[in-house]
Amino acid sequence: AQENAEELRGLIESDAVNDAAVVLDRMPEEERSAAVGELPTEAAADLIEHLLEQQAAEILEQLTPDVAASILEELTSDVRADLIAGLDAQSAFDILQAMSPVEAEETKELCRYEPDSAGGLMVTELLAFESTSTVQAVFDDLAEHSEEYRDIDVQYSFVVDGKRLVGVLPMRDLFLAKRSTPLFELMIKDPISVTDRTQLSALEDVFDNHSFLGIPVVNESQELLGVVQRSSLEHAIAAHDRSDYLKSQGIIGGEEIRSLPVFERARRRLSWLSVNILLNILAASVIAMYQDTLSSVIALAVFLPIISDMSGCSGNQAVAVSMRELSLGLIRPAELMRVWGKEISVGAINGMCLGMLVGAAAFFWKADVMLGIVVGGALCLNTMVAVSIGGMVPLLMKRFHFDPAIASGPILTTVTDMCGFFLVLSMASVLLV
Amino acid sequence: AQENAEELRGLIESDAVNDAAVVLDRMPEEERSAAVGELPTEAAADLIEHLLEQQAAEILEQLTPDVAASILEELTSDVRADLIAGLDAQSAFDILQAMSPVEAEETKELCRYEPDSAGGLMVTELLAFESTSTVQAVFDDLAEHSEEYRDIDVQYSFVVDGKRLVGVLPMRDLFLAKRSTPLFELMIKDPISVTDRTQLSALEDVFDNHSFLGIPVVNESQELLGVVQRSSLEHAIAAHDRSDYLKSQGIIGGEEIRSLPVFERARRRLSWLSVNILLNILAASVIAMYQDTLSSVIALAVFLPIISDMSGCSGNQAVAVSMRELSLGLIRPAELMRVWGKEISVGAINGMCLGMLVGAAAFFWKADVMLGIVVGGALCLNTMVAVSIGGMVPLLMKRFHFDPAIASGPILTTVTDMCGFFLVLSMASVLLV
User: How many residue pairs from chains A and B have C-beta atoms closer than 8 A?
Assistant: First the structure.
């Protein structure tokens, strides 16, 4: 552990914290927490902040509560709360006990917020002064606490009456003011604020509409609780998009990195795969119903996987566009008909192109016009089905509060597989047998 | 246009710029630029900034160069440069001609940078003072230009000798200093900076290692060029992740929204689909080689699409994890064996589970033990193949400078389809026929 810690410390102190995170990630699991425990508190905090949440949680749980608490106390309030929220209940309790009562209380408060609400994204480190204070008093306070305020964003300070937010004060205005002026004469009154329950998308709108670097967060009594910084918001949006990508590829239940235990990784991936295989078997049952058709036109078996794959491709494109339009706010979940109208035209064009391609391949292979028509026609029709379903499913999922990133893919492929198999085999049973 | 403009203006002035963007998006294409042209310049700039780049470009191209230039002059330097870079060459030339020579020159400079380099991400709006200036001179300058500096981040100002960056000055330190002090006595010397060529991932490291809100950008002669803000970086990373998601779903060549013309959307999607269908036909040719096997065991046709789909699912999970580990810097493109070792163990576990499930389904359906063994065994083996390929392909793509987000999916599904079809059909030809 000593040796490991020395290596980590060297990297962290030469500003290569990400490299330190990689080194830690490569250590055997059981050595990680010991190495972190040997680090100076500040370096340990720096490193913990750069790990994936799950890995950070595992390490914190294995440290003694005292060490874990002192590491957490080095972090900003929002990061600290996120980490505590990710621990098992017993560890969280023990570590909070070991923290200073004030910080423990504040952390517990922050843990109660949803991660994607203003309360979950805000930091409580900010500058606030009484509206009756003078410019001179602010200068004195800044001078006195300059070390403590080092990491605080001081572009703006907030002006309060007791706890109630009454104004915002751009710090630059202090330069120009007489030192005896009270803050209520300088401040911008009725500042824009959000409540602790404001959701990510609404926050995005507020930041889109204003060039502020931070927005104050208040409760229903207009009491100042914290500040959401623009970079925290951008960070949360990025995390959201990333998680949507992972979910759409079947990585659900949290981010996976390959240093997690094998069985944990296998179990998580399998939870997704097992749902999919059942849906796949369901879809393939359509083929089973047409065994006679298949045995008389065995060439069809070659085209079934093509139709399944290509419909999936076309449908996934439509899913992706719907996911983006939803998150850009360009479409509301109720606007199914608009999406359908826009998709079906693209689906008709692309379906015809793909159908002709695959139909031609079938025709040239077997010198059978009808085979070409059946296969090409089925792919053409099914492409239109696929883009319609792909475009609309994310809206429906959103409307009924399922997670569209997880559910859209499997629903799409199951329905389009069934429909595609049915189209090609039923057309074949009429036209080819 | 008048009426449209009124509606847009109302929304923009009541801080609902995103709603205005939706309204514009829903207008017939030919009305959009006229409506924007009728807006007050500042409102038009606000709106343009909230559109997707392609839509903004179309509108700017249709406005007169004078109007377009005055709108662009309202925007920050980085946004302006990105928009100009997205225009067709003639429009860009005309609009630059209509801008003030200084701003046109600056914009041209910025356009030369890659979008994901520090030069492409920086803004040139910043505060810089000569190192020999006094605190009083800074106060006077701030007072004089307070309107102009309104949107500038004034947390820090930069200290220069001529153009050369020599220090950074936290503005709060000015409060505490005597007014006659020259800046070189107050400034933090040898500040951390990046060059204009610094890439996104390196910038990410710098911001990860320091809590700065902005980092100065210099050229090779250490001359101050601009500043990259933390929120710009977070924004660029989010855009990157988003584009990876879209590409992995087959939306390539730029973001698609449904108000783009139908043929444009169809053409872009088709460029992806047509590559995929050729790969699909290639993969299905393996089935064609085993027609005799298939016609004697027609039940196999039911399982071919299942094996194809499920291998795709398993492989895509591995692709997603590799993509994330690459972007987190947890893995280098050369570490193929590490990835393979970590994937094959998960693949063996999940392959066995999936194989048993599908094998059991086959056995119960046809009461044929050998069919179950062939189908289940093939899926089990092919799952291991799929996770190996899925895990390694993104690393290979990255290493040979292909875009892993675009190329990984099609390569994965083609290889695993071919391999899966071969496994199940060759095993069947030995054990079942």
Answer: 323
